Predict the 3D structure of the following.
Amino acid sequence: MSKTRDLLAALVIRLTFVVALFAAVLMPAAAQSTDAELKLLVDALAARGFSETEDAIKALAFTGDDRVAAVLGALGEGNLFVGKTSKQVVIGRAAGRDLVLTDPVTRAEIGTEPSAAYTKIRVNNRLRRTIQAAIGTLTLLSDNPVTRRAAAEAVMKTRDPETIPALDAAIAEETDAGILQVMQEARAAAVLNSDAAEADKVAAIATIAGRGDRESLSILTQYIAAPGEVGVAAQAAVDDVNTTIALWNAGQNIWFGVSLGSVLLLAAIGLAITFGVMGVINMAHGEMVMIGAYTTFVVQQQIRMYAPGLFDFSLLIALPLAFLVAGAIGVAIERGVIRFLYGRPLETLLATWGISLILQQAVRSRFGAQNQQVGNPSWMSGSFDVGLISITYSRLWIVVFAIFVFFALMALLKRTPFGLQTRAVTANRQMASAMGIRTPWIDAMTFGLGSGVAGIAGVALSQIENVSPNLGQGYIIDSFMVVVFGGVGNLWGTLVGALTLGIANKFLEPYAGAVLGKIFVLVFIILFIQKRPRGLFALKGRSIEA
Amino acid sequence: MITHFILNGLDRRAGIVVALLVAIAILVPVLNLVVPPSSPFHVPGYTLALFGKYLCYALLALSLDLVWGYCGILSLGHGAFFALGGYAMGMYLMRQIGPRGVYGDPVLPDFMVFLNYQELPWFWHGFDMFWFAAIMVVVVPGLLAFVFGWFAFRSRVTGVYLSIITQAMTFALLLAFFRNDMGLGGNNGLTDFKDILGFNVQSAETRSGLFAATALSLALSFWICSSVVRSKAGKVLIAVRDAESRTRFIGYRVEHYKLFVWTLSAMMAGVAGALYVPQVGIINPSEFDPANSIEAVIWVAVGGRGTLIGPIIGAVLVNFGKTWFTAALPEVWLFALGALFVLVTLFLPKGIVGTVQLAAASWRERRAAAPAAVALDPKPAE
C-alpha cells in the first residue's frame, strides 16, 4: 500500500518537475497548484532517502506556489514532521512534550499532539543547500525588491545549476538594475557549476569577477585548476579580484586610520594649544578628557531619569556642559598651581601629574572604578557599507566633529582678538606683555580653552570607548606623541601629526599586529624627534633655549 | 688619578652615609637571624623584606637623581632600566628552576612549555650562569641607555621633549613585554623562582643575604655617585644642568658628559631591578608602566634632588607612606600621592634634604654674622 503510494508520488514528482521547468521558463507568473496536488508533493518530502527528499523539494519549488516557501523553510529549520501512522506531513512547533501542528497546505492549526507520534524529517547539509536554492528561486519573482535581492544572493550561495531556468525567468522580468546584476552573477555562478560550454563559463567568470568581493574570490578559486580556458580565465579573474580587494582593504585602512587620527586629533588639540602657548606639559590633560566623558554620563543619567524623550539630544546637551566643566577645572588648575611654576616646565609636569592622580581618584571615589554605560543616540548607532568598507555612524560623526572642532579652533585663534593675543604670547611673551596684553589672563583662558576642548573630546570618546577613571591615561602618551610629532604652536601640525600617526598605526596593524604596530610608531617618533627636535611644523624663533 | 677620583668621593659626610649603609647591611640581618623573636631588638622577616624592597627603590631613586639632580635630565622612563635589570635577573632565576617546574621540563621554563616552544630562544642562552646574568643586568639597560642617549643627546633633545620620549620608550617596552611572542612570559612575566646561587629564595637566610647585598650595593653606588659628582666631570655636569648652551660654548662636549652619566645611571637602575626581583619573587611587564617611573621621580623630589642622600630618604619615606596608606586607607593613597606631587613642587622645590641644608646654611651664616654684629655694637657689654 505504502509502496504504491511512494511510487505514485515519485511519478508525480518527476512529471511536475518537467512541467514546472517549462512553466517557470514560459510563464514567470507562477501558477497556483491545487491543494490536493500540493499536498501530495508535500507528503513526498517524507521519503525514505535524502535523494528522494531532494527530488521532492525541487518538485515543490517548481510549482512556484506561494505556500511552498514556508514549508521548505520549516523543513530547513527541522520543524517539519511526519505522522508515524498517518504518514501525513505537518509543520510542528515544539511545546513541552507536545507538538502544535499546522497544516502545510491550508496553513490552519490542526491541534496539539504528543511528539512521540511524529518523526522529524531529517535533512543534511546537501539538502539544506537545495532548500536554500529552492526558496531562493521561489522568491526570485516576489514583488518586494528586498526579498528578490535576498533570494538572488541565496541562490548565488548554492550555485545549483538547476536554478538557471528560474534565474533566466527572473532576469527577464527584473527591472531593478542592482538586483538584475546580482541575479546575473548568481546565474554565472550556477553556469560555472554546470556542464555548460567553455565560452559560457569564461563569460560567467567575467561576470563574477565583476563583483570583486570575497565571495566571488571564494567561488573563482575553485575553478583555477579547471582544464583549458576556464582555468586560465579563473586564474586571471582571481588575480583581478585580489587586486580589487587589496585596494578596498587599503581604503578601509585609510578610513580606520582617519577615524583613529580624528580621535587622536580631538585628544591632542587641547594639549597642543596649552603646550604651544605656555610651554607647559599638562599631564592632567587626559583627565580632562575623562571628565568630559563622565559629564556625558551624568547628563544621560539625568535625561533617562527626567526626560527620556530627549535622549537623542543628550550629546548636544553634554557638549557645552563638558566644555564648561573641564574648562573651569582647567582654569582652577592654572590659577591654583601652574602659574606658580612658570619657567620650570619639568616641575609643572610633575605637579600636573599629581593633579591627574587626584582627579582620577576623585572620579573613582564618586562613580566607582567600573566602566560606566554611556549610550549611543539613535543617530550614532548602526553602520552602512561603501563597497567592501563598513562605516559605523559613530566613527563617521566623530571624524566630522573632529574636523569641526579643528576649524572652529582655527577660526578662534586666527580671527578673534583673543586668538590674536594668544598668538602674540606664543610668539614672544615679553614683547606681548610690553604691548599691554595681560599675559596671565591669556594663560588662564588658554589653559581653560585647552581643557575645555579636552572635555568635548571626552564627549566624543564616550561613544566609542569604555568610560572609566582610566580613560584619559590611555590617551595621554598618544596625545603627546601627536603634539611632539606635529610640532608645537601650529594647529596644522597637530592635524597632520594626528592623521599620520592614525593612518600609520592602522597600516602597520595587519602586518605587525596591533601592539607591534604601535611599538613601531613609538620607536619611529623617538627617532623622528632626533632628526627634528621641534616636530614637523616647528615655529621659527630666535631663542636658543625654548 | 683613579684613586684620587675614588677617595675624593668619600669626604666626611659621604663617608658617614656609606658607613651607615654598611652597618645596616650587617646589623639588620643579624637582628633578624641571630636575635631570638622574643627580643625587642628582633627584626621580623616581614620588615626585613619590606625594607629590602625600599632599599632597591632607594637605589633606583639615587640613579634617577644622578641624571636629574646633577645633569637636569628628567627621565620619565627610568622604570624601564629597572625592569630590564629585573628581567635579566628573572631569566637567571627561571633557568635555576630546572626540572622542578610544573611541567618538569629540564630546560624550558613553564610558560614556554605552555606556549609550545620547542627550544630555548637564543637570548635565553647563558642565563643559567650567574656571572653571565649579572653582567647582563648592567649591560642590557646600559646598552639601551647608550643607544637612546647617543641619538637623543647628539640631536640636542632636551627638557620636556626628552622627558616625553623617555616616557614613550618605557611605554613601548611595556607594550612589547606584554606580548607572548617576546619569549619573556608575556602578561604573567617571570615568577615561581626557587633558587639563587643554590640557596632557596624563600628562606630567611637568603632573604637576609639579599638585604645585605642590596644595602651594600646602595653603599657602593652612593660612593660611585659621590665620586662622580665631586670629580671635575661632575662640575661639568652641574654646569650642563644650569646652563647647557653656555657650557657648550665654553668648549665642553656636553653630549659626551650627558651620555656618560645617563648610561651609568641606567646601569645602576638595572642593578636595583636585579636586586628587587628575587626579593619580591616576580617580574612582569607592569614594571614598565610609565606611572611607576613618574612615581620614582617624586621620591627624588621629596627627598631633595641634587643631593645624594635626599633620594634615598625620599624613596624610603614615600614608600613607607605608601605601605601604610594602602593598608590603612587605600582610598586615600592616590589623593596623598597626588597632593605630594603638587605640594612638593610648589612649596618644597629642593626637597627635604635641600631645605634642611638651606636652613642650616642660613643658620650658620646668622651665627657667623652675630658676633660681628655684637662687635660692632657701640654699647659696651656688661
User: Anything to note?
Assistant: The longest helix of chain B spans residues 45-71. The radius of gyration of chain B is 23 Å.
